[in-house]
Amino acid sequence: MANHFDVVIVGSGAGGATLAQRLAPTGKKILILERGGHLPREAENWSAQAVFLDHRYRTKDHWYDKHGKPFSPNTHYWVGGNTTFYGAALMRLRNRDFQEVRHAGGISPAWPIGLADLAPYYAEAEALWRVHGARGMDPTENGDEPAYAFPPLKDDPGIARLRSHLEGQGWRPFHLPLGVDRDDDKWLHSPCIRCKTCGGYPCLLKAKSDARSIAVDPLLDAPNVTLLTERKVLRLETDPSGRTVSAVVCDSPQGEERWTGDIVALAAGAVNTPVILLNSRNAAHPDGLANGSDQVGRNYMFHTLTAMVSLTAAPLDSQFPKTLAVNDFYWGDPAGGYDLPMGHIQALEYMSGKTLEGQISEILPPALVPDVFVNALAARLLSFLVISEDLPSPDNRVRVENDGRIFLDYAYNNLEGHERLVKKLDHALDGFVDHKHVLSQHHFQFDSLLPLYGTAHMNGTTRFGADPASSVLDPFCKAHEVDNLYVVDSSFFVSSAAVNPTLTIVANAMRVGDHLKARLAA
Questions:
Q1: Which of 27, 38, 129, 242 has its CA 20 to 30 A from that of 192?
Q2: What residue spans of 317-398 are helical by DSSP H?
Q3: pTM
Q4: Pure H helices in 270-415
């Protein structure tokens, strides 16, 4: 195999796979380097014991918090990246998310692009990723979005009752946009069966819209696209001027390999992308490749998250509860008294007894929790995820020690609006549930984070912008200091907003792909 390609892409998750998919019709030679392998399709894909207790598919790597304590990140290295395990919630950033916004904890900075730049790509991504939703219900919508190509998933009876209860509180719940291959009116012939093993699990039927099923699988037989698995990229080398990446160096089962490309795109994730850049320091880039601004690895964000775990007196009639969301408090309290952003609420996936054991395993060993007890709880369990914006800070960062250890130096911020939103939800559930318990991510150290949170929604570590002094990438996600280097994972984010990031990663990779089409044609 020749070692030179027109485009070399590092990572096959939402950003990398989408970029490859966008560029494949050009006929250019494309190489995808993926550090993981193909996820086996096996019964354990749907086993809560295997997924949540045995951590069968999670990385065995350890990262370190700012105190030097090791922890195991909730990260998966497989073809398709973390999307293979995500909950399939696919939401647009709101119009104001692209603008400078004042929060109780500080300022969320403006992006170098606006909603109008991503709007056509959002629409295309929603259709390609089979997003089911309904316009006109979410109060934070811009108002000019096209209708979803797929209708919203129907609520299970228990969630329909919850929707009515929240509407009785004056709330305006909407249908959570979900990417699955499902037609509720023709359920007998739908690949998605609305099972209890969606979010957190790989889909054994490949009915969940993830990078593996939507973007990678259709490329496997393309004559101009090569996917190489078990290739962990170690560093990038440049020519003497430092302006061009001259080689991509990776570890493989056969030893160290070197690949070259006219264009190199990093999509290894918001931790591993800056790690590669920091490990690529040379004479022209002594502080790390493309790091003249000292922003590589900085501004790490991953949302402030709290789970509201509630119990109903009788078993809840819902095995697929994740069809409801609330944005009434996204920009403040409509009842008055608080005019700063609070965040987003969405119903969580079904949790079986074993899933529950996995969620509390850091606190209480599973051997001490009787199965009959947790199974009874699971049948009555209703869970919500409260998401608030994590503000960028240069002190929240990814760094690499000389011995190769990866550190996340992180301190929580912007908690006031989040805590207010948690209390709003707590009070709104009165009369619908009997018992409630709050599991707040920021109450735990990194080394004891529940698997529910882990290191999900990471972004911001090579942010883009117009000013090379304060950003790593230009508005088309090309490194300011390197002419043929791009980044298309969530690292480019300037702010985290308060909704799931995957749809924005996909839409931006499409946008960058169109930019690269023009560049490659020229």
A1: 38
A2: 353-359, 371-378
A3: 0.94
A4: 272-278, 353-359, 371-378
